[in-house]
Specification:
The protein has helices spanning 13-25, 36-46, 62-71, 89-97, 110-119; strands at 5-9, 29-33, 50-54, 79-84, 102-105. It is of the alpha/beta class. It has a single domain (5-119), classed as Response regulator (Rossmann fold, 3-Layer(aba) Sandwich), CATH 3.40.50.2300.
Length: 120
């Protein structure tokens, strides 16, 4: 997988840090945001290749982040992956309807994540 600029948005710092370490070990440039507002700031500053966004966050939730990113210039080209503990089919449908490309359930399988990033 080629090096990517990735934003991880998750209010669970342990989850975000684990993903950050694993992605950095694979050569990616990673920034972590603790909420949706910070994720949007990083989107504007860094123009990431991919955003891994938790659905349930305080303030701006993950689905609203996806809607906002998709409405921005350049937002259509960003790989958006929902990262959630919610795994019902309706949860996946809601994520995709709000603009996510994929919906992964925590804990994230790194091989699956790498495959998704490599396909984009």
């Amino acid at each position: 997988m080629s090096q990517r600029r990735i934003v991880i948005a998750d209010d669970n710092s342990d989850s975000a840090e684990m993903l950050e370490v694993l992605l950095r070990l694979r050569g990616h440039e990673v920034r972590c945001a603790a909420d949706g507002n910070a994720a949007m700031q990083f989107f504007h500053q860094d123009r990431p290749d991919a955003m891994l966004v938790d659905i349930t966050m305080p303030g701006i939730d993950g689905r609203e982040v996806a809607r906002r990113v998709r409405s921005e210039d350049g937002g259509r080209s960003v790989l958006l992956v929902a990262i959630s503990g919610w795994a019902r089919p309706s949860d996946v449908e809601e994520s995709l309807a709000s603009g996510f490309d994929h919906h992964l359930v925590k804990p994230v399988d790194m091989e699956t994540l790498e495959r998704l990033c490599a396909a984009e």
